[in-house]
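How a chain folds remains the central question behind the approach discussed here. For one protein, we set the task of working out the structure tokens from the amino acid sequence alone. The sequence in question and its structure tokens are set out directly beneath this paragraph.

_____
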Amino acid sequence: MRIYISVDMEGIAGVVHEDQTNPVDPRCAGEYGRFRHLMTAEANAAIAGAFEGGAITVLVNDSHWEMRNLLAEELDPRAELVSGGPKLRSMMEGIEGGADGVFCVGYHAKAGTRNAILDHTYTDRLLDVRLNGRSVGELGINAAVAGAYGAPVLLVTGDTALAAEARDLLGAPFAAVTVKEAVGRHAARSIAPSEACRRIQLAAREVVQKQGRGEPRVLPFVVPPPITLEIDFSKTVEADMAEVTPGSVRTTGRTVSYTHEDYREVFRAFRAMQNLASVG
């Protein structure tokens, strides 16, 4: 089996604040440096479990912030790493090469989720994102990218809010590892990083084994066409800029939509609108 792993940072065990995930502000260097190691450790646990379960290849995509967080020298040498940006498929770059299963490691809940560590959807400029009327976060947006290439999400790791979002979105029988329970946006009860890695490795091994045996087989998350994307921006000026995207439609002061039969094109429009909004 070919396993694809998208690794974010907010859902890593112990992370509770932006200072621990911020690679830009020099004042955060110490905290951020510590949690890069923990992020890499959880990625390695997922890699190890995948190979133990029967994976033949593993591709890891660094999916946090500027996407230069995972420590290449510490990453399991059996895996390949995609890092840096911008990338056409962002958090899912490399999935177009094919995969039999996807792991979403260190993920977080969508914007506006109560008791969820660092809840957001790609950027703080996006208040809500909907696919065919259904509110989705990064997990849903990215699971649909995987589904467009025929790959199912087999494993999700993060806090309890993310696990609940995944159950509602994906249903059974994917695996979820909860490494912490938020009591607010910046506070959580977390298991130890070493225990998080142990649980992730075990879950990764088991889910790959089960998928290989087809008992039960996890199916890709596919959004039925025609697919309508709607984005609610935090400011009207951001929607002003996003509306420049060819094919987009301004539906309210802060909302821009886009419809297409192919989700891969919908995702390209999403990326265009998101990045144009940053200019506003």
